[in-house]
Specification:
Number of helices: 71
EC number: 2.3.2.27
Protein name: RING-type E3 ubiquitin transferase
Strand content: under 5%
Catalytic activity: S-ubiquitinyl-[E2 ubiquitin-conjugating enzyme]-L-cysteine + [acceptor protein]-L-lysine = [E2 ubiquitin-conjugating enzyme]-L-cysteine + N(6)-ubiquitinyl-[acceptor protein]-L-lysine
Distance between the termini: 126 Å
Strand order of the largest sheet: 2-1-3
Shape: elongated
Number of strands: 3
Low-confidence stretches: 1-41, 167-198, 530-543, 567-581, 891-901
Mean pLDDT: 77
Structural class: mainly alpha
GO molecular function: ubiquitin protein ligase activity
Organism: Alexandrium monilatum
Length: 1154
């Protein structure tokens, strides 16, 4: 059986006498070195067992012939014999010598095998329990004999009383005789045990007793109640006979009897009649039993109080209304008094009643805790009877359930110490109740879990898990999975305590509850395992898969869904082998279940695979590789409603993680059955089908397949008449469709569906509203016609409302994106958004939204601010500038959102629009740190897109205008180098904005240093190249370039010479010659004037470049500003040279010189 053990231990399998002599220490070492087998499979060495008791020796001693025995056993032997127990030979000496080496070896072995010692102690406890049971049964037999005699006395007395009232007792049944009944005792005359050889009782035979209850004198009624109690105890047939004879109303009436004996007997009889019968309990309540119960709980007779507590327990079970009535009537206080001061049975019944009352209402539980019930229950757990201890644990569990405060109160009352004791010493139901209470105490609290472990609950829990009842093992597993949940250290501790193998056995052999709890415990243990955890050898993980896979064959659907997650968790500690384990071991039986003929099995297997696919990309790839897609498609066509739903959900999970798997599903034919499901399945099935179609349509190629399969009309109808969830999923699918469609198709969808989608925004379901906003965004971004259709459907106000109410980051992103797309094409939509108070919502989104949502909000703000200084002021007053700058500074602000949208561009555009035309807003942006952020954004390493670069440069230009200080900041931030690079390599738009920004930086007040910095940055050559012949540039770009050259040409002679060397003279003269009425001519004239100032040589160059005629024409025909510039330039050229003056006069410039 153990070939590995036999190979390592040559003595294994031989008798003890055949083993060669060796030191006990060597035997211990060999016993401990038995490889990787689980310890419980290792035998106890024969040498460790006493030959007399056959148990592991605790104090080994040797006789004079060298044999070892347990001291107590050999001493008892030698008191009667002088021979050796093993050889039978006479011992020459009775002296005993302690064998210290053997004792140390046994100690070392027991440390490695703690369960051996536990088994020995358990055997001793079992023997003691047998002795106590024998004593108990002997006492019960004696009491039974007394009860039989008592019953005979009751029968004779009742017969006499019936005769005295003219009533003849029925001749049957005969109630006397020793062989008729066996009565287990119950304090106070009540009986709750079983009857053996019990006679039947007819309704007619019960009626005389009932008549005496209803119409006899008090003493006779009390005796009749006692007879009912004794006869009905333990027999459902006799209980039914008394109930049918209408014994309940007179018994309830007797509860208010003035005779204590009558109250006691009536309460005891009612207790027997309602036991185990909900129908009888309701009849007792209808007879008015609830009203006297509070008084009975305070009765002077102890037995009455016990019976009243038992009645409370039976009557409130399963009825919140009766519990509330009794609490309002004041039963809590007397119950607590009985719990504290009553007899053992009374305390047990009070604990049971408190348990059932607390289970009906959290308010009742809170009242009991406030009244001090926890302390009394803990005391009962420590010193009560077995029944009392179990019920006290159940009551504490009911008090602690669903309330951390009440659980803390139970702990503060000392429940943990009592629980550990009950787990160690209690048996059966008592230990199970203790474990269930522990579940409630540790649930949801890391602090209470730590306290439980410190109190020592782990060892008795593992023992209960190993050898308890089915209920106890299930409860112990429930505690363990809660203890290890979310904590690697606790998982390691529980694993080291030996919990894994009992849990795995419970997975295979437990009840449904036990199996589920064990599954959860193993899963949470596996989540805490790591490859380097010394307490968890790899063989443990490997051997855990077998039971989990066999679990798939059990008819426990609620457990099946947990198995893939456990396999994933166990495999995660062996990352390289995880895929192999899941594919080879787990998926084959699951895939076969999908193909099974049993509809239920197919649905369950599809659900299991769905969970596995959703767990990770690795698992999804393994499932796909196992060939599951075709069976899932078949299940879509031929499965049950639940099977089709599970298949659709599994395909959705497969498709959302991989475009390749989505394509495989389309090729396998998933679209037609999914579209059919979207038409005729249940509401839930239509939702799952639409969700799967949404994922399958996530690429242009698959969108075409969906359109060709008729998907657009189906999805459109689903949006109009489906459930909110189905409509949301359909909206998501159509969003993917429009993302891959032409502008014409998008406009058609927008015209037909915008109204329905807008209505969907008001559904109140977050996911549905998210999808609706996404579809509106996709439609509005698709084309101008679609955006107009969306706006005309009234989407603006609902989008703004959704933006204010949604807590979904994705939903806010989509709503802001839709507003931006609509406002881009329609000025009316922008005004409508402002009228709907969108400004504050957008600013709030900028401040606290997700990055993608903040970027879309920035884009919307940029569009709303466009073209209106009033709107810019409103947005700035709402506080938009600061969040925009912070967004620009964020690490991820440069990430795009969706489609072609660029985060940098949106934020920079918003800042550019807000800072335009206002020194106040420009100063606010500067104070927020915008200049450095924008300059950093333009740096080469950041690689901004052209749109982002142009927007950033434009924002810098706005902030530099009108402020020497801010212009100097822009230069100091290092923006000039990036601007020059934009001139050289940028798009036409980038070049135009860069030239304009350089023009602004080199103008204004005190521009000298900024001009020098621009020249040093190499701005001259790129500016001149922009004006080269044949290069197409915008009028804005040409104007900005000429203005920048004009600014740079003013100043020191050296810089003027650099401008000329850069070749600026020719393009300036050409611009002057082309159109004498343009502003460019004015700027070019100013540049020429600057170049000519201060040097006859440069004047000659300018004049020689052919500027004389254009200047005279500008003076004669140009605007006033142009005429002034031309006159100034001509006078400058004429100054200092008669020859140049004559040339000017000859060209017709006489008036200009005057």
């Amino acid at each position: 059986t153990f070939p590995g053990l036999a190979a390592r231990n040559p003595w294994f399998g031989q008798s003890r006498t055949a083993q060669p002599r060796a030191s006990w220490r060597a035997m211990a070492v060999l016993a401990a070195a038995t490889m990787e087998l689980p310890q419980k499979q290792l035998p106890v060495p024969d040498g460790f067992l006493c030959p007399i008791t056959q148990e592991v020796m605790q104090e080994p001693v040797c006789t004079c012939d060298g044999h070892a025995y347990e001291r107590e056993a050999i001493e008892a032997w030698l008191q009667r014999n002088r021979t050796s127990p093993l050889t039978g030979l006479v011992l020459p000496s009775l002296a005993l010598t302690p064998n210290h080496g053997l004792r140390r070896a046994i100690t070392a072995f027991l440390e490695a095998r703690p369960e051996v010692e536990r088994a020995r102690l358990a055997q001793q406890d079992l023997q003691r329990a047998v002795e106590l049971r024998e004593q108990e049964l002997t006492g019960k037999i004696s009491v039974q004999e007394e009860r039989i005699s008592l019953l005979e006395t009751h029968t004779r007395r009742l017969t006499d009383q019936l005769k005295s009232h003219g009533l003849e007792p029925s001749p049957s049944p005969t109630l006397a005789g020793e062989d008729s009944f066996l009565w287990p005792s119950s304090p106070g005359g009540g009986h709750s045990g079983e009857l053996a050889q019990a006679p039947t009782l007819s309704v007619d035979a019960a009626r005389p007793l009932v008549a005496l209850l209803a119409g006899g004198p008090p003493a006779a009624g009390a005796a009749a109640a006692a007879a009912v109690r004794d006869v009905a105890a333990g027999s459902s047939e006799r209980v039914a006979a008394f109930v049918a004879a209408r014994a309940l109303p007179p018994l309830v009436k007797m509860l208010q009897d003035s005779l204590p004996e009558g109250r006691r007997n009536a309460a005891g009889a009612l207790r027997c009649l309602v036991l185990g019968s909900q129908e009888n309990g309701e009849a007792v309540v209808e007879a008015g039993a609830l009203a006297p119960l509070p008084r009975l709980l305070e009765d002077d007779c102890p037995d009455v109080r016990v019976h009243a507590a038992a009645l409370v327990r039976h009557l409130v079970s399963g009825s919140d209304q009766r519990a509330a009535t009794l609490v309002d009537a004041g039963v809590l206080k007397p119950l607590l008094t009985l719990l504290q001061e009553g007899s053992p049975e009374g305390r047990a019944e009070a604990a049971g009643a408190i348990r059932d009352l607390a289970a009906t209402s959290g308010e009742h539980a809170a009242g009991l805790v406030a009244a001090g019930a926890c302390e009394s229950l803990v005391q009962l757990m420590q010193e009560g009877s077995a029944d009392g201890r179990a019920r006290a644990a159940g009551a504490l569990q009911a008090l602690a359930t669903r309330s951390t405060d009440r659980a803390a109160g139970a702990l503060a009352a000392g429940a943990l110490t009592a629980l550990v004791r009950r787990l160690r010493e209690g048996g059966g139901e008592e230990a199970a109740e203790a474990a269930r209470l522990l579940c409630s105490l540790v649930a949801g609290s890391e602090e209470r879990k730590a306290e439980a472990l410190e109190a020592g609950v782990l060892e008795p829990l593992v023992q209960l898990l190993d050898s308890g009842t089915f209920e106890g093992r299930a409860a112990a597993a429930g505690v363990l999975w809660r203890l290890v949940y979310g904590s690697q250290s606790r998982a390691t501790t529980v694993m080291a305590a030996g919990a894994l193998w009992p849990l795995m056995r419970l997975v295979e052999t437990g009840t449904s509850e036990g199996c589920m709890n064990a599954v959860l415990a193993v899963q949470n243990l596996a989540n805490g395992l790591h490859e380097k955890t010394p307490q968890v050898p790899l063989s443990v993980i490997d051997r855990s898969f077998g039971p989990l896979l066999r679990l798939l064959r059990k008819s426990l659907p609620e457990v099946h869904a947990q198995v893939p997650a456990m396999l994933r968790s166990l495999g995660s500690s062996l990352e390289k082998r995880a895929v192999q384990v899941i594919t080879v071991e787990a998926l084959r039986p699951v895939v076969r279940l999908v193909e099974d003929e049993t509809p239920g099995a197919r649905a369950e297997a599809a659900g299991t695979l769905r969970n596995l696919v959703a767990s990770s990309d690795t698992s999804a790839a393994a499932v796909s590789a196992a060939g599951i897609i075709p069976p899932l498609v078949q299940l879509l066509s031929r499965g049950t409603s639940s099977g089709r739903s599970e298949a659709a959900r599994a395909l959705q999970s497969l498709a959302c993680r991989s475009g390749e798997r989505a394509a495989a599903a389309v090729v396998a034919g998933a679209l037609p059955p999914l579209l059919q499901m979207a038409e005729d399945a249940s509401p839930e099935g239509r939702t799952h089908a639409a969700a799967a179609l949404r994922e399958l349509a996530s690429s242009p190629g698959r969108v075409e397949s969906l359109v060709d399969a008729g998907g657009v009309p189906v999805l459109s109808r689903l949006i109009e008449d489906g459930s909110p969830e189905a409509r949301g999923a359909a909206a998501g699918a159509l969003r993917n469709v429009v993302a891959g469609s032409s502008e014409r198709a998008i406009a058609a969808v927008a015209r037909s569906l915008s109204g329905a989608v807008v209505q969907l925004l008001a559904s109140g379901v977050d996911d549905v509203q998210d999808e609706a906003a996404g579809l509106l965004w996709g439609l509005a971004a698709g084309s101008e016609q679609a955006a107009v259709a969306v706006a005309e459907a009234g989407a603006v106000a609902p989008l703004v409302s959704f933006l204010g109410s949604s807590s979904s980051p994705e939903g806010c992103t989509r709503a802001a994106g839709a507003l931006r797309s609509i406002a881009r094409y329609m000025e009316e939509a922008a005004l409508a958004a402002l009228a709907a108070d969108a400004v504050q919502l957008l600013v709030r989104l900028l401040e606290s939204g997700a990055v993608a949502a903040r970027v879309e909000a920035a884009g919307t703000i940029a569009i709303l601010a466009r073209g209106s200084d009033e709107r810019r002021a409103s947005l700035a007053s709402a506080g938009a500038i600061g969040p925009l700058v912070r967004l620009l500074e964020a690490d991820h602000a440069a990430e795009g959102t969706s489609g072609e949208s660029d985060g940098q561009a949106e934020v920079a555009m918003a800042l550019r629009e807000l800072t335009a035309g206002s020194d106040e807003r420009a100063a606010a942006a500067d104070a927020a740190g915008a200049i450095q952020s924008l300059a950093d954004m333009l740096q080469v390493g950041r690689s901004p897109t052209p749109a982002a670069a142009a927007a950033a440069a434009g924002a810098l230009r706005n902030m530099a205008e009108g402020s020497c200080k801010r212009a100097n900041k822009v230069v100091a931030a290092g923006a000039l180098g990036a601007l020059v690079l934009m001139l050289e390599q940028g798009t036409p738009e980038c070049s135009a904005v860069a030239a304009g920004t350089i023009r602004t930086l080199t103008g204004g007040e005190e521009p000298g240093e900024r001009k020098a910095a621009a020249v040093s940055a190499g701005a001259l050559e790129p500016l001149v190249h922009l004006l080269e012949v044949g290069r197409e540039i915008s009028a804005e770009c040409r104007s900005s370039t000429v203005g920048a050259l004009r600014n740079l040409s003013a100043g020191p002679a050296e810089r003027k010479a650099m401008v000329l060397r850069a070749g600026a003279l020719e393009p300036l003269v050409r611009i002057l010659s082309e159109n004498s009425c343009s502003l460019d001519c004015v700027e070019a004239t100013g540049a020429l004037r600057n170049l000519a100032t201060g040097s006859d040589e440069r004047k000659a160059l300018v004049l020689g470049a052919g500027c004389l005629e254009p200047l005279v024409r500008l003076f004669e025909e140009g605007p006033e500003e142009g005429r002034n510039e031309a006159a100034s330039c001509l006078r400058n050229l004429a100054k200092g040279s008669q020859e140049r003056r004559k040339s000017i006069l000859a060209a017709g410039g006489t008036r200009a010189l005057e």
